[in-house]
């Protein structure tokens, strides 16, 4: 343990892991004997562990390596071509972003990429991006002493502080203003967001298989490096590079980058995914005989009350569509079944996501849970419908199951517009999410209470529409109660979309 502490533990020792991983050590600054010692130490620990397990008669199963999924969500830039690699090779020699002493690491990263050692390339790039950004961070924030600090007596500067909104002393970090929101969003997506790949953490903790590391992730880091290095060359040199079609495309994509893994971005994707699954419902087959029998179940007073509430609430929501988007004009009388054309437009509106305060993140968390339950209901309805339809056709339904199928058919006609209504509400609240700052503490708690009641409804709906329960009649009662709560809260005009419509003087302090 003492040897481990000296090599990789406390900052009072060599602290090799942090010094190397955070890009403080230049080539040849770490003696080869330290590397040899670490190799022998690792092998020795393996032997000790094996001996202990044998004597203790215990097994220690290997944890399977983590697979980096959602690679498609990461692919903003196209795959790196030979032309882009050539540009990057030239930029590494001309860009002031790279410390000359660190240039061999960049050269090695490109060699590793060409050798299809994508994890090695990614690790080298992450270390050197941190080194370069630390230099910019120290310069922009006028704290040169933070540049090369990797000592036991001072906190050294890493990505965590470089990408933060404030410095440790409470002052505003100037780096985000300098880099711009798109670049910051890219770095947060790759490194920090919980639903993102968190590439740096995964690699540094040995959680991923190095041979199976996705090339697509390394492509993105290389492309981002090209755009970043371009900002640190002379203007005439940069203009020459930007004339190249491949580089021009990378710059355009980088400037238009928006968050992919921020909770708000994930919720937008969730809303659109749920909307696509709801489109399947009208296509679900219904035998002619079942359709006739279902018609006899429709038109009860509670269902009619629900339909009236849906029409009223939908009309109210339409009045809060953004006025500065021409696609939303003249929609006052648009029926709810036309809602699908609105959701993609609403979700395409750019909403700032960098450094969202706690109140915004709390609201997003509840909305995400509501969206998940809506998606669950949609999947369950489609699966149950197909199963019951097949059983009906094959005449395998008992009388009670037959009745249940007819009730489901009737309930679905109510659930479809209800779920669309909820998705529309979520999308409108997302567009106006930062209006949450206009609420005082009491109003904020009341708003959260309303959202949680809506979440409770979707959770109950998911339970009642599950294959285990199949309680379709009860869904009408649940829906009626939920719609009444939506109307009551809407009349108070305390949703975020309502605050966006109020004059500035009417918003709560």
TrEMBL record:
Residues 1-44 form the DUF4209 domain. Coiled coil: none annotated. Pfam families: DUF4209. PANTHER family: ENDOPLASMIC RETICULUM MEMBRANE-ASSOCIATED RNA DEGRADATION PROTEIN. This is ER membrane associated RNA degradation.
């Amino acid at each position: 343990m003492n040897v481990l502490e000296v090599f990789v533990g406390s900052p009072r020792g060599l602290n090799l892991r942090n010094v190397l991983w955070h890009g403080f050590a230049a080539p040849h600054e770490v003696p080869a004997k330290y590397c040899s010692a670490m190799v022998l130490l690792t092998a020795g620990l393996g032997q000790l562990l094996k001996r202990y397990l044998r004597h203790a008669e215990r097994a220690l199963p290997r944890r399977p390596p983590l697979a980096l999924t959602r690679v498609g969500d990461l692919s903003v830039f196209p795959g790196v071509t030979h032309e882009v690699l050539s540009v990057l090779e030239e930029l590494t020699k001309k860009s002031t972003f790279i410390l000359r002493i660190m240039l061999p690491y960049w050269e090695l990263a490109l060699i590793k990429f060409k050798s299809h050692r994508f994890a090695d390339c990614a690790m080298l790039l992450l270390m050197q991006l941190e080194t370069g950004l630390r230099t910019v961070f120290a310069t922009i924030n006028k704290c040169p002493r933070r540049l090369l600090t990797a000592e036991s007596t001072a906190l050294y500067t890493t990505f965590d502080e470089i990408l933060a909104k404030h410095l440790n002393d409470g002052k505003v970090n100037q780096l985000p203003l300098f880099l711009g929101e798109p670049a910051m969003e890219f770095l947060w997506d790759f490194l920090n967001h919980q639903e993102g790949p968190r590439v740096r953490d995964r690699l540094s903790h040995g959680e991923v298989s190095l041979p199976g590391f996705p090339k697509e992730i390394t492509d993105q880091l290389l492309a981002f490096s090209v755009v970043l290095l371009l900002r640190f060359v002379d203007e005439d040199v940069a203009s020459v590079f930007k004339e190249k079609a491949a580089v021009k495309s990378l710059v355009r994509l980088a400037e238009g980058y928006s968050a992919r893994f921020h909770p708000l971005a994930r919720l937008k994707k969730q809303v659109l995914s749920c909307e696509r699954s709801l489109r399947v419902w009208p296509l679900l087959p219904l035998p002619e005989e079942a359709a006739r029998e279902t018609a006899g179940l429709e038109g009860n007073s509670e269902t009619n009350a629900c339909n009236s509430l849906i029409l009223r609430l939908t009309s109210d929501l339409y009045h809060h569509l953004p006025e500065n988007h021409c696609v939303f004009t003249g929609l006052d009388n648009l029926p709810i079944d036309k809602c699908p054309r609105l959701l993609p437009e609403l979700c395409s509106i750019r909403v700032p996501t960098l450094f969202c305060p706690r109140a915004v993140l709390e609201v997003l968390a509840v909305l995400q849970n509501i969206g998940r339950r809506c998606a669950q209901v949609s999947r369950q309805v489609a699966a149950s419908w197909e199963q019951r339809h097949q059983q009906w056709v094959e005449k395998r339904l008992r009388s009670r199951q037959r009745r249940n199928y007819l009730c489901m058919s009737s309930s679905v006609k109510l659930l479809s517009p209800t779920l669309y209504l909820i998705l529309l509400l979520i999308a409108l609240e997302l567009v106006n999410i930062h209006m949450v700052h206009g609420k005082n503490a009491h109003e904020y708690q009341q708003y959260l209470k309303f959202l949680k009641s809506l979440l409770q409804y979707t959770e109950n709906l998911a339970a009642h529409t599950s294959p285990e329960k199949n309680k379709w009649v009860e869904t009408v009662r649940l829906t009626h109660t939920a719609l009444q709560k939506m109307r009551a809260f809407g009349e108070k005009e305390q949703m975020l979309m309502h605050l966006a419509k109020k004059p500035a003087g009417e918003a709560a302090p």
